[in-house]
Amino acid sequence: NEMPAEMRIIQLAKEGASPVPLEPAQLAHQLDMAIGFFTHQVSYWPDYMRGLQQRLPPNVVGLPRGADGQASADTFYAAAHFDLKDNEALVVAVAPSDAVYWGCQLGNFWWESLDYANRHTSLTGHQSQLGSDNIYRFVVAHHDPGVPNWLDTAGHRKGVLLFRWTLFRDQPPKTPQTKVLPFDRIRDEFPQDCPSIDEAARKESVSRRQAHVSRRFNQ
Predict the structure, then answer these.
(1) Which residues contact 58 (CB under 8 A, 6 or more apart)?
(2) What is the CATH number of the domain that holds 78?
(3) pLDDT under 50: residue ranges of the chain
């Protein structure tokens, strides 16, 4: 339901005037800034990931907390680093929250988002299906488990799982609970009335994601 915004920023009293030519020193400064940013990012995210690996064992979500000035002050975050064999799955149980927005996503070692247009690598609260026992269950797996709320690793054995809760009204979100189990035992963690998601339904869902991303980026 997002509609692209159209905005135009102008500098007052400069309309119709030609911009001042860029001086060599200005260009050199901008290049130095770009190089510095790139150098920082190359080291920052691997160090951040290694810090997460030192604080938490694999496949365990940490306590939800604020970003300490590094991101939105109205948002709590919780992260895990997953490490799954081909025949394993990570089931994550999440209690409902009164946050205005919440969701989860997968990323790689460098915290880059995985392909969210063509794969189910992220889900918002609106996209997620609540179980009959009032618990959301997400499945991080390399293959389609045929249940709701699949998070596709896109071939990554290791990576990061990140939750966000924005503008919660009363209590902070509860810590998601995790369990690693064989792929063929996934349904044991779901209520008996959990629906099955077949290949056709999954393709239809991906088609909707592709349309949403296309609209989001005006493609």
Answers:
(1) 80, 81, 82, 83
(2) 2.60.120.1600
(3) none
